[in-house]
Amino acid sequence: MTAYDRLTARAARLATLNEAQSVLSWDASAMMPKGGAAARGDQFAVLASLAHGLATAPELADDLAEAEANPPADPWQAENLRLLRAAHTRATALPNDLVEALARVGNDCEQIWRGARAASDFAAVQPKLTELFGLVREKAQAYGEALGMSPYDAMMDTYQRGITAADATAIFAEYEAFLRDALPRVEELQNSRPAPIQPQGPFPEDVQEALCRRLSLRTGLEAEHSRLDRSTHPFCGGTPTDVRITTRYSTDDFGRALMGVLHETGHALYERGLPEAFARQPVGEAAGMAAHESQSLIIEMQAARSDAFLRFLGPELHKTFGGDAAPYAPENLACITRRVSRGFIRVDADEMTYPAHVILRFRFEQALMTGDLAVADLPGAWAEGMQNLLGITPPDDAQGVLQDIHWYAGIMGYFPSYSLGAMAAAQLMAAARRDVPGLDDGLSQGDFAPLLGWLRTKFHSQGSRYGFNDLLRHATGKKLDPADFRAHLMARYL
Amino acid sequence: MTAYDRLTARAARLATLNEAQSVLSWDASAMMPKGGAAARGDQFAVLASLAHGLATAPELADDLAEAEANPPADPWQAENLRLLRAAHTRATALPNDLVEALARVGNDCEQIWRGARAASDFAAVQPKLTELFGLVREKAQAYGEALGMSPYDAMMDTYQRGITAADATAIFAEYEAFLRDALPRVEELQNSRPAPIQPQGPFPEDVQEALCRRLSLRTGLEAEHSRLDRSTHPFCGGTPTDVRITTRYSTDDFGRALMGVLHETGHALYERGLPEAFARQPVGEAAGMAAHESQSLIIEMQAARSDAFLRFLGPELHKTFGGDAAPYAPENLACITRRVSRGFIRVDADEMTYPAHVILRFRFEQALMTGDLAVADLPGAWAEGMQNLLGITPPDDAQGVLQDIHWYAGIMGYFPSYSLGAMAAAQLMAAARRDVPGLDDGLSQGDFAPLLGWLRTKFHSQGSRYGFNDLLRHATGKKLDPADFRAHLMARYL
Description:
The structure is a homodimer.
Chain A: H1 3-30, H2 37-55, H3 59-69, H4 75-93, H5 96-119, H6 122-147, H7 151-159, H8 165-192, H9 205-218, E1 226-230, E2 236-239, E3 242-247, H10 255-273, H11 289-303, H12 307-321, H13 330-337, H14 354-370, H15 378-390, H16 415-435, H17 439-444, H18 449-458, H19 468-476, H20 483-493
Parallel strand pairs in A: 1-3
Antiparallel strand pairs in A: 2-3
Helix pairs in contact in A: 1-2, 1-3, 3-4, 4-6, 5-6, 6-7, 8-14, 9-10, 10-11, 11-16, 12-13, 14-15, 14-16, 16-20
């Protein structure tokens, strides 16, 4: 057995252990009775400590050095070796007491945040958040030094490699300028039109669930490799051969669950399309969180909200829910599913204003990291920032700085992924339309095969072989080009 | 930290890892889409190998010796230490290549058995079963030597400590004599009565499921610590704070699912009642498989089929399913749920003939272990044995030697637990009736609290503090006394 073989065998073992963790995590959200929570926490802790043991085993350093002295000729294997090195660098970069403090303080802070958000009381969580950010800064510092990056770039790289804070800064500045010009015009046009006709419920949950599952499978997701269940917070989990989608239903509105399921289906299709030959190896994994978000959004935002697909979806919805046909006319559905509106809550935002929410958080994260912004000043800065970006001021902290879990769980550097993914989705869709002439004809008949085939070849099957910009270059011929996203918005909204 | 503390910390870690395995196992049976099977197999293998690593860590031998040199004064802790020693003896008794061969050949044999059973073709599985039994004999030999027991006693002890093959031999001989006398008389009496009125279906699955859940919770099982789901083979899994019951439904017959769920509920209540102070320690676990079966059967056979409970159940069923009231009259329900009938299939057997199925297997297992019976001679011996015990001959091997998975998965020494458990259930119920005057009044109102309270105090809360006979002595004042089971059968059937 060569050093490289030993490394991949160990990586596979670690990935398999993480699969177990992932299924248990799905179970905790979708199935577990409340009374199992404490024991499940212990199970996660034991699995995490065993995983940490595998990731930092003393033999790894020698095997990495030996393999690097004579690296594999195959480019996939060579990249895999580089990723194994990077994973080892991360796993060994943090002192044990920092890892433990992050887990403990992160957990405490998340618990306090739940109460603080319910009471809209930022002061209640401010001390713990300050403590947590101190630890996150130490972590970012250590990662940055080990990887030769700035602390914030090292955190971004945790979630998406191949794109930097400097890249994002330029992209977001450009988008901010675009939004200042385009948003009022879109709103004016939208207001000049009659209000859409709302479908009348109630829409029974089991009917919605069957519809969601049917449409999810229609995209090309295989029934024998997936499930659809319910949880408070929708997500896509499980493992590449057994993906688990969840959503929640409201009997007043079917659109949220349906678009949510199609979003998660995009994530699921990506997992299903990863290269099997490198399953359970770093190079066989998804390329990062921005890459992942591009896949959920290309299904949800680009395909499912397209004129073409709405022509298929309208009659399908009418057949499913019955009643008056008018709300299900494709043009009416378009008005409903593509409504632009300035709001306080990121997860409820339309695709045009969504980046404003991300820009705000991206800027604050960097200022918090350098110390230019104090935790105590966050609520004020938030109100000012929202006013500046979207012209609205949240009535309370629950609808402002307390709305997202990320920071309170110690997650920093993740937010840019959402909007970089949205932009990549537009760029990928434009390229797919160029490469595959029948793409929209397919969608208008509910046929995702032309789009999915292109995504599998150009994107899914590439695993983690490339960083973000190089992956887009491979798939579309150029690095991330936000002009495609702006062009998409102009075409759809103006 | 003392040596004993180090041992218990490691035991808790291992138990927690096994909990993760248990939830994944439930998922594999109740939730997992087919396409996840291969990955799940890998996940189990990695977890098993990590668990083996924890169970055989080199530090354990030193810590055990150190703790035993100065054993804890507390009797629970002292017993826990003895059980930790026994677990270590087992974990280190088998050479690695035997463990691997057992896993590999056991898995192969089980796969071949599935096909052989479907084709009713014993010859197809005979060579692999012969190979597997050779390995099982080696294992029994090694366990026996390490534990100072005969090979077969060492296998029985794997599933239930505190009762030997010699004990079971005497008990079963006595039962065989009883059955030869009582069974024809029961059949004569049964045949002299008019046939019971069968409830008319269809019984919708979701209505059955709601009924099963309602009655399962009525026993005292807590909703926030349990689930009820569906699987091909009903079982009780999960963890003590998160028990997962499964069953399957047929729209023709609600009785099987209902009694099945009450059976699994008995297992679940036992897990819920184990001593929390010793959670994740050997002494805090269930006392063995016969002990476990006594708890499922005291709920299903003793309580749920009692005259008292049927008075509550009849109206409940009629309210649930509607239609004609006559089939739900308690006396009629009694005839339906307590029908004695000589059959080929163990899992379908009534409580009176069930031990005959176990006696047959128990005798064959010992003869296979000593070599007095060759694998090739099993089908013939089976036909002869069934004829001798129950006066019937199975038409094929699928309804004979191929019906149960146990042997084909390398499980030997388990079968006696079923009937020892049934006998213990009768003994426990008799003792509970003596100790708790209002027990049957409670059951006649669907109130299990008097029975459950007694079981919790006398049995559940004792964990693994005692072996089987001592546990019964603690709860009822005497070791296993099969006379109580015979008295129960006489009272119920004659």
